[in-house]
């Protein structure tokens, strides 16, 4: 629940709401939607949301493994904004059910979950950076120099 008492939409609920809005509120029309997967980024007769239009599960009749809900929302928003990511970021259509998820992230899950492998790698690099310049303790042990040439007699 948000501060104003409204329930937050999940990505699945937002897609269902957008599909309902697109067909004029007729739930039966969502099931029989004839939209197709877009051929190019700004394809007017295509819909990235189509596999998830039912609101639960995913229709795999067109693709064996469609992208995640958040990715299709981000793709649909980019298509709506002419393919321009900056316009998606600055979108002012706050009434759109997809608006919260327009950048491919779920703001309601911020801070939830474990540490990503990317942040572990960044942390490891920053730890390594603190060891510069190398000290006696961080350098490998010194080996004695040996002469490979035998002296001539």
Task: Look at the structure and give the mean pLDDT.
Answer: 75
Oligomer: single chain
Helix content: 25-40%
Biggest sheet layout = none
Counting DSSP E segments of at least 2 residues, the number of strands comes to 0
The structure class reads mainly alpha
User: What is Rg?
Assistant: 27 Å
Separate helix tally: 5
Question: What fraction strand?
Answer: under 5%
Stretches with pLDDT under 50, minimum 5 residues = none
Distance between the termini: 91 Å
Sum this structure up briefly.
With 153 residues, this protein is mostly helical. The chain is built from five helices and no strands.
Report on this structure:
The chain has 153 residues and is mainly α. The chain has a domain at 11-108. Helix content is 31%, strand content 0%. It contains five helices and no strands. The N and C termini lie far apart (91 Å). The relative contact order is 0.11.
Give me the secondary-structure topology.
Blueprint (H helix, E strand, L loop, with lengths): L10 H12 L4 H5 L37 H12 L4 H5 L27 H13 L24
Descriptive key words:
single chain; 153 residues; mainly alpha; 5 helices; 0% strand
